[in-house]
Design a protein that fits this description.
Blueprint (H helix, E strand, L loop, with lengths): L1 E5 L8 H14 L4 E5 L5 H5 L11 H5 L11 H4 L1 E2 L4 E4 L8 H5 L4 H5 L1 H7 L7 E5 L6 H9 L2 E7 L4 H19 L4 E7 L6 H14 L12 H8 L12 H14 L4 H6 L11 E8 L6 E5 L11 E7 L2 E10 L2 E9 L2 E3 L7 E3 L5 E7 L1
Parallel strand pairs: 1-5, 1-6, 2-4, 2-5, 6-7
Antiparallel strand pairs: 3-4, 8-11, 9-12, 10-11, 12-13, 12-15, 14-15
Bound molecules: adenosine-5'-diphosphate and magnesium ion (MG).
Amino acid sequence: MRTIAIVNQKGGCGKTTTTVNLAGCLAVAGSRVLVVDMDPQAHSTLALGFDPETIDENLYEVLCEPAGHEAATPLEEVILAWDERLHIAPSGIVLSALEQKLSADRAEDRMERLWRALESVAERYDYAIIDCPPNVGVLTFNALRAAREVIVPLETSDFAIHGVQKLLETIALLSDRIGHELAVRILPTLYDGRTRYARETLGEIRSLFGDLCFDTVVRSNIKLREAARRGRPIVSYARSANGAQDYGALAIELALTLSPDEIGEQVPDFAPGGPAREVVIQFRDLGATDVRLAGDFNGWVPDKDVRSLVQAEAGDRIWTKILTLPPGTYHYRYVVDGEWREDPVNPVSAPGPVGGRNSVLVVR
Ligand SMILES: Nc1ncnc2c1ncn2[C@@H]1O[C@H](COP(=O)(O)OP(=O)(O)O)[C@@H](O)[C@H]1O
Ligand SMILES: [Mg+2]
């Protein structure tokens, strides 16, 4: 499991938006993703359509040591499923009490709560993406302790650069103290290329941070706000919107970079010959009668080596396609009543050799 904390002590720079939409794009491309909402404001929980007030137990019960001999709630018991591959460990306002609650504990111990909890589900997910509150307290420390990678969203329309040097120092100090290296990358967000100020700020960010800065820039896009309000990741709400394209590009950029663990072990990202695993993708359409799947994994022979299930749900027909694939990057299309089509819910695609576009699936 690659654990990535989304950190910036400044509010409104796109932490929650990045957490939910990066997670959504990774899940649509085939990864199993856990969103971890460490902000007591529970914006990620809300943005995935869950009401924190009606959730019985959240991360608070997992991270806090109860009185007496009771054990803390296991993380898996609070996890909610948005869909098959995208899950969330929800937050709630009580999480803000964790600071006082843990202050009696030994310093190292209270920083390690989330790390220990995530260890218990590490086999079940390819990614854990941790949304952090807009301050650097015990919750953010827990996130940094649990993560190996950090993404710092930086608003390009603001004096964002000033606070960030300080944040990078804090992160470096913390990794020294706990003897735990963190790979930090900067993500420019809320970019409006029409304003000269934003263009200049982006230039400054790029020259200041160089390779630490993602190539991807997240543009300002109102659809991102709408999707959050409807409790959906953008890729399942407005797949062709700029916001979906940008977070799709970020997901690819991230998936194509080695995680620090993989670099440490000198294992290439998509080791050919790694263990194969089951990959499930779905196509929904009421009008279609025959939907088959073809890709480079089956020599572009529709439905060869693919298990298929068809079911009806809420006025839709759903074709579920199950493949067993070793780690790698694959291109595919659906054949819908004889017509070759891109996957309508996968934002990641590449030009096909004979025109049109192929959808891209990454198996890790
Ligand atoms: N790229 C974007 N385009 C348009 N609105 C955005 C974008 N990123 C974030 N927002 C909106 O800006 C506000 C703050 O973003 P949010 O992700 O909640 O920041 P943070 O978690 O850092 O406080 C939210 O209303 C969100 O919907
Ligand atoms: Mg937030």
